[in-house]
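Q: Given only this backbone (837 positions), what sequence would you predict?
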């Protein structure tokens, strides 16, 4: 260890000779090893502060700082006010970027300019008008640093040493609520128990110069403030997803240049990011194409060759192939080369060596996909089950949650999780009235605990596909609806897939039965409940609300605390059709297993179909109209398969080809799924579309080195890649001469590790190395739930792909949701099936 330490010190002391930051063609500041973004990414307002906006620092390949902006709190939380970007000017003459920020709520405008100075940048804040009186002592310039980048490291403040806290244990103080800057739409993340107060974190240290991690050349950052003192805070005292924050208050009563910081991130001279060798962590089948994609720093010169080694029983590596490196070109900020080792077909354990870099070991074998979906069905889905206690061996994942479901959401309400109510309820219930019968079935949508009906429908459709086409009878879960008890790794003689279809359908049926139609979702009303981490059964008090009692008072059966979830009930035909499709499919799967529920599913599917058929179709526009058409078609197909009634087939055939003409992506899967139920003419007519689909797919090889459809703004694109692979699976089934198996494997290879940034499998606990830090309800423990599939790669503008493995809280990268996991189960089991044919 000692020599490394010495090298680090030498590099750190070399910082004075680093190269100056330059404003590059992509409008950010760049030198080898350091990039500074100045609002290349802005707050989009969707989920408020996503920690992906403002002034940001990428130091030696890692995005370690974000949120550089004028902010109104010491440690802003996700739902604290964020400034709107009014203007961004890139001045190539002055080598500066200037942004104008505004808080509309306070008519408060500020300007920030960033320009290179010495070995860093100067950040200056200008005000044309003084800080508004209400914001005096509150408005400041903040820059946030990634906690995990600084764990087990130290800081110097005016020369005085301190350690970054591993766990938040800083000092806080309590202030009267009238001093608080309101959070988004008047919501509050803080449960003050009716006391009218809030918490203010106090600084860990204060001074004029802060040096972060002087011992680590990769993370060393120096900040100097000419005027106001710098304060260092730990945002995690208020919110587990908080960052370390360096902050200076803006002075009261002043205009012009009111604050100047000098920010110098250390740049290791001639730094190069290590090559990243991406491959499938699950491994490869002997006959399939095997292509590693190697991601290279743009200053790195590619090597001529790479090697594949086999590890035999005595532990000695044997070189099985030395192959040529094929350049692919630039994608985003990296250069890519490919290493094809398809020629090696002998089953065994292998690793890839490229220069000095070796990968971990992976398998070549016939049955590599055999177990790949088991953790998702055995563990991840059971943990997501709502209204049930879930046990696994000695661990209880959660008790029975949400027995107090649910109240009618009030009219004219905008909720923080994207739900909204218009001026009417579209039900027989009045605002806040209890809707009976909803405390049954359903899954937590994601890392939060709401029921999202749309994703339930998608999950059920994927499950029924898997049930009907792949005959998955695996039984590793005990599920007892009568006692609301689930036990993981405990067979109960019933296929788990059917039990999951039943569990999802129970909630959909309860919605239609008790409300009259499916609802957008069911979610807690208070923001201080919503960010809940831990056991779902404590997100509410599980007692129905009783207005006769005072808050926090209970008679043992009811309570005076308004914490029951709300059902957002506005009706739309898109969701009605989507639900009709899921229910018609569930009806078939549940026949002979739960006949009563199966019959109810069909009854309500028909009811939703008939009620919508009587509605004029013209009321939806744009995206909604497209969604409506696609869900109507899916409903027609599922109802036709369920009933064989000609009316449904007629409507399906009327709609399918115009839909495909509009968009192949939207309609292709359902078109292919229909083949077994339509005539030969139908299949023949589809052929041309499948050819077009292949052309589109081949084009992905030109767009990126992985040859898959990449979409990665705002939310990672793994779902689209899985769905594309599923479409290819169906297409291969019916048109094997057009679509080969590689189109299916490619999607899974990507999910299993052959993707940018790192080479981990995006499915926790699947593959040799996989995601161990994800955004589930256990995210604050930096943990995962086995079988969860993350959204994947987020691309920060203009060119930075990211999927952090040391920070779970970026939901666009790491939040596991039900529909992607259900479609993953189908794809992964389908590929295994394909294999066995
Ligand atoms: Ca949600
Ligand atoms: Ca079972
Ligand atoms: Ca309650």
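A: Predicted residues:
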């Amino acid at each position: 260890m000692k020599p490394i330490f010495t090298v680090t010190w030498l590099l750190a002391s070399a910082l004075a000779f680093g190269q100056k930051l330059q404003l590059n063609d992509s409008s950010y500041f760049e030198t080898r090893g350091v990039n500074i973004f100045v609002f290349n990414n802005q707050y989009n307002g969707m989920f408020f502060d996503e920690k992906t906006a403002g002034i940001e620092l990428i130091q030696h390949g890692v995005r370690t700082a974000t949120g550089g902006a004028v902010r109104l709190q010491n440690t802003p939380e996700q739902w604290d006010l964020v400034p709107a970007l009014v203007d961004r000017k890139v001045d190539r003459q002055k080598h500066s970027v200037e942004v104008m920020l505004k808080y509309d709520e306070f008519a408060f405008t500020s300007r920030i300019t960033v320009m290179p100075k010495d070995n860093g940048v100067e950040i200056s804040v200008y005000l044309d008008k003084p800080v508004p009186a209400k914001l005096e002592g509150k408005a400041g310039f903040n820059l946030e640093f990634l906690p995990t980048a600084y764990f087990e490291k130290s800081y110097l403040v005016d020369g005085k040493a301190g350690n970054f806290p591993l766990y938040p244990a800083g000092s806080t103080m309590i202030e009267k609520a009238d001093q608080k800057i309101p959070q988004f739409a008047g919501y509050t993340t803080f449960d003050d128990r009716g006391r009218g107060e809030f918490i203010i974190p106090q600084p860990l240290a204060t001074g004029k110069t802060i040096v972060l991690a002087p011992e680590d050349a990769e993370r060393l950052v120096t900040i100097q403030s000419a005027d106001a003192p710098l304060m260092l805070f730990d945002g995690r005292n208020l919110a587990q997803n908080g960052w370390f924050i360096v902050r200076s208050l803006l002075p009261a009563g002043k205009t012009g240049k009111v604050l100047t910081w000098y920010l110098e991130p250390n740049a290791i001279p001639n730094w190069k990011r290590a090559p990243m060798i991406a491959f499938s962590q699950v491994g490869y089948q002997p006959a399939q194409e095997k292509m590693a994609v190697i991601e290279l720093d743009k200053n790195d010169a590619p090597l001529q060759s790479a090697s594949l080694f086999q590890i035999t029983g005595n532990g000695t590596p044997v070189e099985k192939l030395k192959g040529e490196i094929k350049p692919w070109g630039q994608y985003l900020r990296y250069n890519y080369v490919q290493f094809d080792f398809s020629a090696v077909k002998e089953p065994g354990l292998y690793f890839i060596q490229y220069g000095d870099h070796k990968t971990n070991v992976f398998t070549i074998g016939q049955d590599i996909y055999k177990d790949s979906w088991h953790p998702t069905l055995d563990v991840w889905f059971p943990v997501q089950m709502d209204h049930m206690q879930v046990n696994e061996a000695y661990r209880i994942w959660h008790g029975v949650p949400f027995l107090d479901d649910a109240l009618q959401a009030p009219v004219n309400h905008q909720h923080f999780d994207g739900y909204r109510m218009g001026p009417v309820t579209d039900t027989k219930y009045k605002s806040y009235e209890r809707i009976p019968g909803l405390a049954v079935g359903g899954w937590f949508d994601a890392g939060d605990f709401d029921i999202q009906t749309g994703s339930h429908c998608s999950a059920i459709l994927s499950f029924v596909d898997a049930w009907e086409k792949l005959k998955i009878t695996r039984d590793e879960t005990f599920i007892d609806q009568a006692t609301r008890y689930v036990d993981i790794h405990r067979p109960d003689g019933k296929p788990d897939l059917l039990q999951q279809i039943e569990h999802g359908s129970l909630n959909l049926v309860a919605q239609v039965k008790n409300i009259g139609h499916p609802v957008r979702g069911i979610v807690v009303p208070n923001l201080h409940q919503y960010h809940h981490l831990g056991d779902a059964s404590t997100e509410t008090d599980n007692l129905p609300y009783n207005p006769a009692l005072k808050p926090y008072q209970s008679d043992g059966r009811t309570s005076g605390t308004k914490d029951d979830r709300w059902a957002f009930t506005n009706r739309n035909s898109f969701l009605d059709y989507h639900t009709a499709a899921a229910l018609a499919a569930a009806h078939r799967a549940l026949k002979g297993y739960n006949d009563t529920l199966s019959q109810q599913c069909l009854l309500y599917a028909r009811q939703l179909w008939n009620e919508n058929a009587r509605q004029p179709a013209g009321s939806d526009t744009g995206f909604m109209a497209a969604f409506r058409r696609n869900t109507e078609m899916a409903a027609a197909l599922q109802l036709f398969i369920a009933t064989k009634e000609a009316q449904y087939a007629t409507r399906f055939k009327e709609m399918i080809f115009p839909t495909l003409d509009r968009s192949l992506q939207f309609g292709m899967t359902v078109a292919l799924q229909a083949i077994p139920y339509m005539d030969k003419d139908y299949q023949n007519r589809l052929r041309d579309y499948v050819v077009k689909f292949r052309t589109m797919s081949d084009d992905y090889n030109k767009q990126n080195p992985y040859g898959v459809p990449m979409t990665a703004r705002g939310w990672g694109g793994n779902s689209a890649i899985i769905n594309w692979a599923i479409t290819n699976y169906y297409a291969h089934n019916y048109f094997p001469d057009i679509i080969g198996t590689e189109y299916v494997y490619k999607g899974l290879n990507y999910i299993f590790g052959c993707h940018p940034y790192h080479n981990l499998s995006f499915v926790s606990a699947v593959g040799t190395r996989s995601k161990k830090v994800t955004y589930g309800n256990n995210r604050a423990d930096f943990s995962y739930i086995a079988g969860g599939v993350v959204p994947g790669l987020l691309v920060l503008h203009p060119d930075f792909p990211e999927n952090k493995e040391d920070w779970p809280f970026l939901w666009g990268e790491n939040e596991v949701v039900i529909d992607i996991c259900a479609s993953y189960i189908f794809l992964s089991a389908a590929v295994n099936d394909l294999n066995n044919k």
